[in-house]
Amino acid sequence: MLALSVVTHRTGCAVVGVTGEIDLTGARKVLDKLDRLITEGRNRIVLDMSGVAFCGAQAMSALVRTRARAQREGGWLRLAAVPPHVRRVFERTDLDRLFPRYPDAAAAVSGRAVPAPAGQGSPRRSAGAAR
Predict the structure, then answer these.
(1) 70 touches 44 (CB < 8 A)
(2) 70 near 43, Cβ under 8 Å?
(3) What pTM, to 2 d.p., does this model score?
(4) Beta-carbon contacts of residue 92 (< 8 Å; ≥ 6 apart)
């Protein structure tokens, strides 16, 4: 079961807490919630993923679409406290390039990303590398 909560930070951005599995059904629920926030003019969004047990491909796609929409509206989508098992999927799919690391919601609200630890992150291919 997926649970979502929304808190307005003193800066005005929306902090959305997610707990549970973001599977196919959960991805739709998250996308609907984030779309609603942007439609309401709340286009600066932090998604606190500290309680996420699973994040499927549909969820990843929804996050990319929401990030693009928020940016078109002059805002942003930042992911906070992404669990290691979910972060690995982001790294393997190169989505870590779109979503910097924020250790917690407070860091994400303020834009204080942390670099990937040495030896972690997705391997980057050079322009001439074989595929």
Answers:
(1) yes
(2) yes
(3) 0.87
(4) 122
* Tens-digit pLDDT string for the chain (131 aa): 899 999 999 999 999 999 999 999 999 999 999 999 999 999 999 999 999 999 999 999 999 999 999 999 999 999 999 999 999 999 999 999 999 999 999 999 999 998 876 655 544 443 444 43
| Residue 44, strand partner residues | 76
